[in-house]
Each structure stands twice: as structure tokens, then as C-alpha cells.
Design brief:
mainly alpha; two-stranded antiparallel ribbon; 2 strands; globular; transmembrane helix; ABC_transp_permease; transmembrane transporter activity; membrane; amino-acid transport
Length: 289
């Protein structure tokens, strides 16, 4: 029983990470209709920023985490202005090549600047534990879960209750009609990418103390986040979150009861099984010709 509880907590922690990244991907696709292949590298940048804030600026973990998320807002704005805005009205082929190129450039830039060895981001919360049903659990894992819950709650409130959030939803429904009625497409696009980048920053700030920062950390993370987006239904933020948790729990159980060598196989098998039953995803809607 203790082993099961431990794996479930590990699964919820992994799921929180996948859900945060997948929600950002789903948000960008839903509003801007762009598949951002560089989204995993935004998490990587956030991880290195957290490491730098704690190591070079000697900031305590809470302040380093807040600084990281704030810096990621600026990174997101820069990414939108220099890349996304220029490919917004281009074909999907151009969008794919552009974001994939950014991903490759960022990975190699990280190797040049920081080297290929993992960098640790220290959190005093990572050394503290609580006991749940006889299982020692790091307090940092609860930070991950609470951050995910708070972020998702604020995002849903923002999308439903604010003028900008409603404009984002209108843009997701019909970009041309939204532009006709006066919704500033470029400004809403900027806000969308900034929010998604902040969510990537939150994932990095909470998860890096449990693992480490390294140049290719975003690659597999982004692939699994894409799997969650596909499972949940493209552009459906809630579906991406639920699917992210499902994949995280499935992966943790596979590691605990089968083998870590088969964890990724099981994760993508779950995605394939879902798509065989519901080709449009768990929460997506079938499109009729």
C-alpha cells in the first residue's frame, strides 16, 4: 500500500508538470492555431533561470521562483514579437519549421552557455518531508501540486471573467470575426503567449528542484505534453490538464510496477488507445463535413 501511495503521489507530481506544459500548448493552439514546437525549451529556459537566480543572485527559493516566472513573461513577449507574430498568418509548414528551428537553436545555445551537464536548483522545501500513510513525501511535491491547482484556477477565472480572457475565447472561436468586431488580434496573441510562457515558468520553477536543469530536458517533456494535448482534444485547455494528469499517473505506475524502460511505451500506448476510441480526443468535438 505504501508503494502505491508513493507512486500515485509521484504520478500527480509528474501529471502537474505535464498538465502545465500541455495547457500552455493547448492555449496557444486554441487561440492562435499554432503548434509551438519550442514550448519545451521555454521550460528549459525557466529551469536555467531558476538555477541562475538561486546560484548567482543567491535568492531564496520562493523569491527565485517568482523571479523566474516574471522573467518568463518577458521571454514569452520576446518570443511572440520576434517569431510568433511573423508567422501568425503563414501556413502551418512555415510555423512548424520556424518553431522547430527555435527549439534547436535554444538547445544548442544552452549547451554553449551552460554546458551539457545537469545543473541543480536548490529548494529548502525539497529537504523537508511529511509522512502520509507511512510514506515520506517531499514538501516540494506539494508545492508542485498546489501551484498547478492555483495556476489552473486563475487561468479559468481569467478566461471566463475578464475582458481580455473573453477576447481570447472569441479569437479561438473565429479569428476573422473577432478582428471585424474590433478585437486587437496582435495584442491578444501577445497576452496568450506570455501566459503560456509563464505557465512554462511555473512548471520549471516547481519541478527543477526535484530533478535538474539540462539542455534537452524540454524535448521529451514537450512530446508528452503534445500527447496530453492530443488526448484532451486540440485547443481544449481543460482536456489537456486532465490528460496530463492521466499520463503522469500512468507513467509513475509503470515505473513503480513494471520498469522505467517501459514507462514511455505505456504513456504513448495510453494515448493511442484513447485516440482509437475517440479520434477527436477525450474532450474534443467531432468535426462533420
Amino acid at each position: 500500500m505504501n508503494g502505491l501511495i508513493e507512486q500515485l503521489i509521484n504520478g500527480l507530481t509528474l501529471g502537474s508538470q505535464y498538465a502545465l506544459v500541455a495547457a500552455g500548448l493547448a492555449l496557444i493552439f486554441g487561440v492562435l492555431e499554432i503548434v509551438n514546437f519550442a514550448h519545451g525549451e521555454l521550460v528549459m529556459i525557466g529551469a536555467y533561470l531558476l538555477h541562475a537566480a538561486g546560484t548567482y543572485l543567491d535568492l531564496p527559493y520562493p523569491l527565485a521562483a517568482v523571479t523566474t516566472v516574471a522573467a518568463m513573461a518577458a521571454v514569452g513577449a520576446l518570443f511572440y514579437v520576434t517569431v510568433i507574430r511573423r508567422i501568425l498568418e503563414r501556413g502551418w509548414q512555415v510555423q512548424l519549421v520556424a518553431t522547430l528551428a527555435v527549439s534547436i537553436v535554444l538547445i544548442n545555445l544552452a549547451i554553449v552557455v551552460e554546458g551539457s551537464l545537469p545543473k541543480v536548483a536548490y529548494s529548502e522545501l525539497g529537504t523537508r518531508t511529511v509522512t502520509i500513510a507511512g510514506t515520506q513525501v517531499s514538501v516540494q511535491r506539494f508545492v508542485v501540486l498546489l501551484s498547478m491547482a492555483a495556476t489552473f484556477g486563475v487561468l479559468i477565472w481569467f478566461l471566463r471573467s475578464t475582458r481580455t480572457g473573453r477576447a481570447m475565447r472569441a479569437l479561438a472561436q473565429n479569428r476573422e470575426a473577432a478582428a471585424v468586431v474590433g478585437i486587437p488580434v496582435q495584442r491578444i496573441g501577445l497576452v496568450t503567449v506570455v501566459i503560456a510562457s509563464c505557465m512554462a515558468g511555473i512548471a520549471a520553477a516547481t519541478m527543477t528542484p526535484l530533478y535538474s536543469a539540462h539542455p534537452t530536458m524540454g524535448t521529451l517533456l514537450a512530446i508528452k505534453a503534445f500527447a496530453a494535448v492530443i488526448m484532451g482534444g486540440f485547443g481544449n485547455v481543460s482536456g489537456a490538464v486532465v490528460s496530463g494528469f492521466a499520463l503522469g499517473i500512468a507513467e509513475a505506475l509503470a515505473i513503480g510496477y513494471v520498469s522505467s524502460a517501459y514507462a514511455d511505451v505505456l504513456v504513448f500506448s495510453v494515448m493511442i488507445a484513447v485516440l482509437l476510441v475517440r479520434p477527436h480526443g477525450l474532450f474534443g468535438r467531432a468535426v462533420r463535413a
